[in-house]
Amino acid sequence: MSTELIKTLAERDQSVIWHPYTQHKTASPPLAIAKGEGVYLVDERGNKYIDAISSWWTNIHGHAHPYIAEKIYEQARQLEHVIFAGCTHEPAVRLAERLLPLLPGQFSKVFYSDNGSTAVEVALKMSIQFHRNKEQRKRNKILALRSSYHGDTFGAMSVSERGVFTMAFDNYLFEVIFIEPNTSLSLQHLAYDEIACFIYEPLVQGAGGMHMYEAAWLNELICQLKQKEVLCIADEVMTGFGRTGQLFASEYLHHKPDIICLSKGLTGGSLPLAITACTQNIFDAFLQDDLYKTFFHGHSYTANPIACAAALASLDLLQQESCIDSIESITVSNRQFVQEIIHHPKVMNARSLGTILAFEFHSDKKEYLNKVKEETMQLALQQHVFLRPLGNTVYIMPPYCITAEQLQQVYHTLLLIIDHI
Question: Which CATH entry fits the domain spanning 67-318: 3.40.350.10, 3.40.50.170, 3.40.640.10, 3.90.180.10?
């Protein structure tokens, strides 16, 4: 018998695959997933694990949802893809028509791309060229927050916190003005007339460590920047589609963004798709007879019809009363669990917002490479729960279909881990 026939999927993987964010010299073998069933991931041996992080925060309705699958199938039979320069199609138009009225601000146009990093790249390029098209070339600086993460392409890395994700490329990143969240808003030292845009993750900074900061502080900052004609970009790639308890985190703020970036939960975790939406004012700066003022940006799979169909199906599910009730139920349960662990001697900064819950283990090394991450993952798998901590920051962000009993299993697992670490 061929040795290929008796190798496990994980063994075959290790022969041919290079995984993201993985040091293959020291990493454990990957968990070989055969299928998904609602809140569960099922490995090649039939073991089931609660996906407590929604597969990188994307899978808001659970795995292999039959309604989304059916809509994907229907669209694949109709039109699988078409170039989006000079062509259009029903799923793209309908998705934009449905989404624009739901967005937190006066948005009028949708620009499609394929992932969170590219949605951010689009937003940055839109902002810079907006001022260039208006002959405001002095506005060429970008303002961003410390502890932020906006993606792994070069523009997205440039506006992210310098650290383990960017270290190898720091010499290639453009200069950005960084400010600390929740600090004094005495920003007289800033030359506002040189700032093109401000980019931020509203209220929760995801990959930077699930850092949560005050809505009032952000609201006041956006107010000041808008008065100075600085464009404000909300990176809601992670916080969008109900994650913070509201449909979008920007709904907690009185002052709304000029540009919003969306991905992850957009298709319910089924297919890659991203959106950068902007106000009419921004679009109008590109609407000119001068062809050099065109926005020269695009992707081969821009507005893929199957992905748009999946996003429409996800929106259908998200707007159902049962889903809204589930988000509220998870929100309340998370608050209660935070109170249960907040004074535990091994726990620091227990916190929650909506369906997001996070805390740190006391450690001398508070960063992504902290070894407690691997131990936590393995302990969780023994309890049939899938977690992927950010160093010593442990968090959950479950699918909205999780039941009260399943959520309690996740909390019980967290308690066992806290006691063991």
Answer: 3.40.640.10
